[in-house]
Amino acid sequence: xxxxxxxxxxxxxxxxxxxxxxxxxxxxxxxxxxxxxxxxxxxxxxxxxxxxxxxxxxxxxxxxxxxxxxxxxxxxxxxxxxxxxxxxxxxxxxxxxxxxxxxxxxxxxxxxxxxxxxxxxxxxxxxxxxxxxxxxxxxxxxxxxxxxxxxxxxxxxxxxxxxxxxxx
Length: 168
Hints:
This protein is an all-alpha fold. It has a single domain (3-161), classed as Farnesyl Diphosphate Synthase, CATH 1.10.600. It has seven helices and no strands.
């Protein structure tokens, strides 16, 4: 697919929308479906930031190790006949653009005086999701490999430094 088509596909197949739709449940918010859908742009940007950043982190595992072509970096390489390094750079630019667009939309929404407290917390929850996707990917060994093209992912984390979930 084209890069644009891939981004549209990835936005919807990544599992980000179910995560987004958990925000009202997690924060016990009283929001209607219409209210949530009114935040279409920031919902979409949240899904794109999460899914496309995952493609950067998972590139070595999914593409180099398992041969998948369904990855932003692989799609960019094929679409524009770029080297791996050039495609990684382009993918990072795309994620950075989506992240800047998210931050701009986030600030614009929070500047609206007519938002309810639940709507503000919903938007804050989307910000937390974007932060969590990055934190999770750098806090686990799932995408780490000595063969990773990303220097920060070449060293495995000691078990005691891994992200752990504490039982309730």
